[in-house]
Amino acid sequence: MNNIDTLIFDFGGVIINLDYTKPVDEFKKLGIFDSKKLYSKKEQTKLFDSLECGQISDENFLNEIRKKSNTNNLELIKKAWNSILLNIPEERVNLLKKLSSKCKIFLLSNTNSIHLNEIISAYGEKKWRNFISIFNDVYFSNQIGMRKPNEDIFFYIIKKNKLDVSKTLFIDDSPQHIKTAKKIGFKTYHLTDKEDIISLFLEKAQ
Q: Are residues 113 and 163 in the same domain?
């Protein structure tokens, strides 16, 4: 943590646990057998990009998925899509609180309103408000119309917060996002599936 005064965290796979295999299984039950080609950790189709940038409504997105399925029930499709979401471990929340007393921390996430609404519903509105209040600011792709790994979202957060990239550590679980951040000049850390931010910061504190 030497010479670092700002931390930028990804959300999915870094703070909230995700299961990328679950929606694949759930979509198969609805007759969609190529969902890995539509959406994965490393890449996704334009439909999902549009959803993450807030360029398509939830209903239109679900209807596009419905066309590939054997059901007309949009709630079943939404449930399958939300099955990727798991939990936010309390230990990570406590870590973020500790870090926020030492430096500026931000949340920068590629997400969509379907997932956000599900997370808030599961977490509870009050608890969610308390969670996001830990951060100096939060940036969700669907709310600002930009997404990683495009450079514009990084320059947006730099300009808005007058960040010194040489003193900012960006933590993400997607290599393509790390690549762009590194190119711009951020300090970066690629969090792998076997790692946790808790152990990461314990190591850095030693």
A: yes
Q: Which amino acid is at 205?
A: A
Number of domains in the chain: 2
- Residue-wise pLDDT for 131-141, tens only, equals 999 999 999 99
- The set of residues, in sequence order, having a beta carbon less than 8 Å from that of 132 and lying 6+ positions away, is 107, 138
CATH number for position 162: 3.40.50.1000
Q: What is the mean pLDDT of the chain?
A: 94
List C-alpha distances in Å: 59 to 71, 110, 113. Answer: 15, 19, 11
The contacts of residue 106 (CB under 8 Å, 6+ apart) are: 6, 7, 8, 9, 135, 136, 137, 138, 139, 157, 161
The residue range of the domain holding 53 is: 21-82
Strand partners, 39: 44
Looking at the fold, whether 187 and 118 belong to one and the same domain comes out as: yes
The rounded radius of gyration (Å) of the Cα atoms in the chain is 17
In contact, 105 and 99? CB cutoff 8 Å: yes
Q: Based on the domain organization, do 155 and 193 belong to the same domain?
A: yes
Joined together, the tokens standing for residue 106 give: 């931000």
Q: What is the pLDDT of residues 89-144, one digit of tens each?
A: 999 999 999 999 999 999 999 999 999 999 999 999 999 999 999 999 999 999 99
Q: pTM value?
A: 0.94
Co-location of 132 and 150 in the same domain: yes
Q: Is residue 54 part of a domain?
A: yes
